[in-house]
Amino acid sequence: MRNVKGTRHSLRSTRKLSIIAQDPSVRIGGRIVTASIDVPAEELLSGPRGYRVAVVDYDVTANALYQTADLPSGLDGEYHDPFLDAPDGTLLSDPRFHAQNVYAVAMRILARFEFALGRRVQWGCEGHQLNILPHAFAEPNAFYSRDDRSLFFGYFESFPDKQDNTHTVFSCLSHDVIAHETTHAILDGLRSRYLEPSSPDQGAFHEGLADVVALLSVFALPDVVGAALDGTTGTALIDQELLEKDKLANSVLFRLADEMGQEMSGVRGRALRHSIMLPPGKDYMNDPDWQEVHKRGELLVAAMLRSRRLRADEMLRLVRILDNVLNNTSLILLFRCGSKSLLFPGDAQIENWSYALSQAAVREKLKKVDLYKVGHHGSLNATPKSLWDLFDQKSDVDSPDRLQSLMSTMAHKHGDEERRTEVPRQTLVQALDRQSAFFTTQSLKENELFHETSLDLS
Fold it and tell me: Which of 52, 76, 176, 345 has the most beta carbons within 10 angstroms of its beta carbon?
């Protein structure tokens, strides 16, 4: 917390650490998708070793103890993330990052459980500290052991590619696998007798809940969700077509552990589990093939995901109806003045743009826009990604022909930053600032009533 002078008078409650957002097989533009997540801030010993989690990087197969990760202290200032913007080669090969990755994901999952329950949550094993071994053994497996008070993550060689090359697959680099195994340790602490032999439904509940937590934990990273859906990073909005239920179901967001699944099966694109694709209507409960706890747990996951998908589809239809009634009565005005095109969309929303952008002639005219008056004060649905991508004049480089953009807005009045509905939408503001000559009324000084811009019409 900072005082009125801007200096810090207490320690931070959280720190940011870089992780691999899903697993190394999920890439955008050839780069592994990463995320910077909030985890509880604590002073750590080498490992890292904290109050609740201790990373012990011992490899039983190789009989080797890997170099430990040292995460900098925050006592003397800001916490530093040693792997922020690290290249992919470092993420894949440096055991210190592997240690940071398992520590950060496990602590984030624990923190979310404790926040939801409003209290401390104990591990299923004795003591307050859970050991994590990121390179425990050379096997395609990962598991939680109450007796060993540990999470064990294995590694193995992939199938040869077309050039007969292989690479090492680390389960400790899969966000889904780490979240899954951490949930086992937490659920064991909440309901310790669920691991005792009984009906297959007890073990299936353990596996199903762990899968659900792993899947939903990715949905709590909005920028990662956008990247996974449209294959780009840092864009303002997600194309509406990508939100149709069939496309969502086939997206990486609803698959669990892509890299481990395809390398263990030898089938490209086959995830370890893809529960939402189970066809409904079969008598799975009495089928002998569905008595194994991992497979049986998929039934819980499929039921939950299908219900959420139906609810999301209903909400999307409701939003479209409301848009039609309200802002979608707005006119979109495109002025042609001399050699320049000026676009004033008013309060047009997604349905307006869906209709306008469905026409090839309109798309062609919009490509040549020189000045864009940002629609609806920079709100969530007023500048679709499909519109922004059309503008030929946008550029990261300043030039006389660069797109000009103007926005009239007032921040912190509407929407919610945590739900990513704030006005103006920050990802849109960043895109406008990066790729156009951008002015917002937020930049007006206290006594300024207007801003004058000019455009050469010759």
Answer: 176
